[in-house]
Amino acid sequence: MAVKRTPGERITELCKTYSINRASLAERSGLAPELIRRIEEEGHIPDLAPLVKIARALGVRLGTLLDDHEELGPVITRAGEAEATLRFVTGLPETGGHQGLGFKALAADKGGRHMEPFIVDIEPGAVQEKSTHEGEEFIYVLSGKLSLEYGKDTGVLDAGDSVYYDSIVPHRVLPADGKPVRILAVIYTPV
Q1: What is the total count of domains within the chain?
Q2: The domain spanning residue 168 has which CATH number?
Q3: For 153-184, how does the pLDDT look when each residue is reduced to its tens digit (9 = 90+)?
Q4: What are phi and psi of 71, to 5 degrees?
Q5: 92 and 181 housed in the same domain
Q6: Domain containing 92: what range?
Q7: DSSP 115-140
Q8: Which of 77, 116, 160, 171 has the smallest number of CB atoms closer than 10 Å to its CB?
Q9: Would the pTM of this model clear 0.70, i.e. be above it?
Q10: Average pLDDT, stretch 102-118?
Q11: Rounded to an integer, what distance in angstroms lies between the CA atom of residue 93 and that of residue 173?
């Protein structure tokens, strides 16, 4: 059985492998050294945007920071078997860890992939800043009403609706009616 590692442990390992110190990683990624320290040393899970920037700065795909091990063939995730891999309280200081977005990776073991499929549970009262990062996203609303803020526009999507957009535009997703929302989100980031 593979030993689970946090994104911070993977970042530390990659930095050692590539002889990149924290200051260089901060400069390459455009992130504060303190944020990188918290991710590496405290196991802090930030919004996806900083992880995308770190992956880009290290020359690896986002999945490299999130994977436990890699399968070269197809990866099947059976209903009810997707493990909750990450919980984000995105972009803002922790609010006690009770509100946010819970991510369940659907292809965490797939090696060499260029997209990251997740089931995301968005809790009522989730608090987050708008995110911006390279790549594209596809969202399909499985249940609930989703409020999507994209640039200066806001729209509501119902169960069965979907949206595809460029992730470089500031965006965020929240419950539209104060009730939980479940989405399928696929994030594509070029290497």
Answers
A1: 2
A2: 2.60.120.10
A3: 999 999 999 999 999 899 999 999 999 999 99
A4: -110, 135
A5: yes
A6: 84-188
A7: EEEEEEEE-TT-----B--SSEEEEE
A8: 160
A9: no
A10: 76
A11: 18
